[in-house]
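Consider a concrete sample entry:
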Amino acid sequence: MKMGFRWYGAADDPIPLAHIRQIPGVSHVVGALFDLPVGEVWPVERIRALVDEVEAAGMRLEVIESVNIHDDIKIGLPGRDRWIANYIETIRNLATCGIKVICYNFMPIFDWVRTEMRHELADGSFALAFDQSLVEGTAADLLERVQSQAGTTMLPGWEPERLADIEALFAAYADVDEARLAANFEYFIKAIMPVCKEVDVRMAVHPDDPPWPIFGLPRIVKNAADLRRIEAFHDSPYNGFTLCTGSLGENPDNDVPAIIREFVGRGKAPFVHARNIRHTAPGRFHESAHLSSEGSLDMFEIMRALHESGFDGYVRPDHGRDIWGERGRPGYGLYDRGLGIAYLTGLWEAIGKSS
């Protein structure tokens, strides 16, 4: 297991690499070029500069999260081949710089949805939260709420220029149901897989977050059945998954340890997001500390499933709280994620020694 830490870059992340380096067990940084427009080719020189910066701090950068997919590909518009060609060139450029895994998603319009960026918990910490009743208005209402709570912080997947005319974007998706979105996903996967194999870069699609339809938009990466369908698009180690325990666990019907055993056991999960969440009512949850006792997921069973399935890929803690007076990027402060890493690596060591 290679422990990593998501970082947004020196220009946009208040956490310096030197502080990340001091977290015991962290050997990798998970990064991206967040300022490039969706669909544009990532230049080799920009990728190399980021890799060099991380390596100069004593860590490695081998996982990119995310190379977002242009809406024309998801919708299946005639111009999608141009954007797929750009994506393929980006894959090649990333491989040139030593990248091994690309985490991405295939969610229409919204990459992820929360209704509260700073929900106060009983202990005085603050966490991301979701309430289904607050997404029953219009998407424009949600967009305004999220952007107002985020302030000047750039939220990945919520690019202002892409969402500027949200009504037109929804109109473009009007005829995209689950079957069509899945077909467009299959088209994309089949187009990129030969290059992924050639340059040895594994694709790892992230589950939908939350794993159910939002504003009538289809979701196709929700559960084990969906993952099996995607796997069948092109059965290869290069067509894999980011198993996000929180996103999958937001639906109580998902047996997260069983999903881990199935897909890690088949070598289809090179990347894991390990986090806990607390269900508070149907369709309502908030992020929590990583400990099993703090949320609704059994993190011991999750880590045991990874260990017993022979997981040797990349993992990072996800969506920490703001604690000890920190006012970090929503979900991505330093202190709680550092505590999460200590807990997860402690579980991993104990499971390994007891077995």
Remarks:
- The first helix runs from residue 17 to 21.
